């Protein structure tokens, strides 16, 4: 079905009808229409890549290693050495301020400098987390570096308390805040199974800095006779160099061009569980840093020399250095992050009280090691806990500063719908697997995907969402951009709710929310029936029927929406109501479902008409599938031939399928006479007609699908669209696999018994434009070319055309209803 060319070539696809039963029912043939199919698509000149292509890898699983991951971890480690490590050695400066720089100030006054640093580290981290999510970590890290170095340089020339408070307090705190969150949170984009170790490694940079800076300051101040000012300047220049290296090493895993959604502040501040976790972190941070700032003054008070007092700070940080690794590895090995937090918090509290009994120098040293290990471990383990609760990987920075904890909400849903599968953990591979069918441009990340197993589950889920004021959308089978939502809402994925019930006597089938085209086709064929279907096995039948549903057999059955007999629909009325929709009950809603191209609720069940396979004129519903392949440069020659073929009323053809008429002779002999590069064809039962197309129907990398209904086919206009396409590929080479497809009904499609809002049965031509493999940066440009092609085919008479886009519904509504006059008629 597909050919790969080593040179610049093109595909032309025409449907092949190799033969037909000469003994077919002539009367039934009068119900035939003719669909022909043209498709052009250029192949990559160098690689000869096929149309199917691989979806863009958004990396929704976690590498848990590799060069990029570990370089990011190293960058985070260096960031903590330069910033938070300086904060961890704050007790050195606390002591030096008291004895030398500000001898007239009290210890409590001087403590304000370190306290402001701790406060600013977390307070400014709130904004840096959101900034990192939006623009990547490099920007906040650079901003933080500037203010941290500036603060230390200004502190080196300060002489008064308020100057130290502003420079080394607020300014340095601002810098640390913009470094702390991005450097730590970015690790959770790269690691899952080894997250505890990776975060512990990054946090150990704080302790490494807590060893380096006190020892360096002690050496410069107490042994080299360096002034306080030059000591800070040297430290500032070293911080600058370390941070430049860190910024170059840290890499964001997801592109900054990803869709940015407003942060769900309201959900965060109104969730009780979230507030409890945040309060717990607040209490931990309120007390855990006290020993870090007072260990040096305390050691000196207990008889240690100034030099040994400086080293006590380094000893405490050395203990914390190993604690970060130890608890992280224990959590990874099976204890879990939350259990580790509980154990570490209890042990830390016990050791804190042991400080009271450490009187001599040996006791202070032993206590510093013990407290350093457990408090360092506790600080390191909180971040992965918070990251586990973030609804998406692209808002981890935001969540690391707000500690969103929403599991209680899902527990409530599980209570009322125990059979539902609820995927809300952004670290769960299944959560992201459910989103992989969307393109990299269209993909959004909801707060959860809910997979109901029954109609009861669907009803309870809708009621729960309405009561919780959570937006929801439904999806089934292949996707569309209006069947997804961002972090503010949920997706109800109906793929787990499947059942096909066929009533052969009534020639009807009852389909539920998650049924797919292939499943239904197989069940109907077993009963000797068929119905209107598209060319993709993975299409969800309910959205297919609700969205018009054109197919290769529309001339026999009518469009998909004409098949709808009744439905069961969950609406938002009365907080979630299940309605039985028939011609007698809720008839207005049935009319809307049959033809308004919209969903008016969650459709849990459709009853549709079916037809005898004998109407296809072949035993077992056999039809032919195949393709002609020509060079692109022959489009001018091929288009007029195809136009003549489309006037042949002996067969119905569309896509890659052909339903034969009565003639046994080869119907497309004129195409064979043009000597195609490839001509294939074979018979297949109608329920298997789309099997060969499955590789083409994956939606993970399909960027745009546009259809325009036309009143006539202009061969010259079609060639102009090819020329426009050539210009598009010249400007946007990544869109090289874009293709065009034209289908034709030789007579009007079967007229429905009741005229629906769509009223498309007298539109004889349909042109499909498929835009494949475009990048985000040029998507709009490629889309503009697509619209230009559609405009060429529509011509001047807009009232004889209708548009349908699966990528958007923001276009003029009159184009969907064949002009303003027709729309007004329908609205009346």
TrEMBL record:
InterPro entries: FAD-bd_PCMH, FAD-bd_PCMH-like_sf, FAD-bd_PCMH_sub2, MFS, MFS_trans_sf, Oxid_FAD_bind_N, Proton-linked_MCT. PROSITE patterns: FAD_PCMH (PS51387). The keyword Transmembrane helix applies. It is found in: Membrane. Residues 36-46 have a biased composition (Basic and acidic residues). It comes from the Eukaryota. The keyword Transmembrane helix applies. Gene3D superfamilies: 3.30.465.10, MFS general substrate transporter like domains. GO terms for cellular component: membrane. Belongs to the major facilitator superfamily. Monocarboxylate porter (TC 2.A.1.13) family. This is Monocarboxylate transporter. It comes from Aspergillus bombycis. The lineage of its organism: Eukaryota, Fungi, Dikarya, Ascomycota, Pezizomycotina.
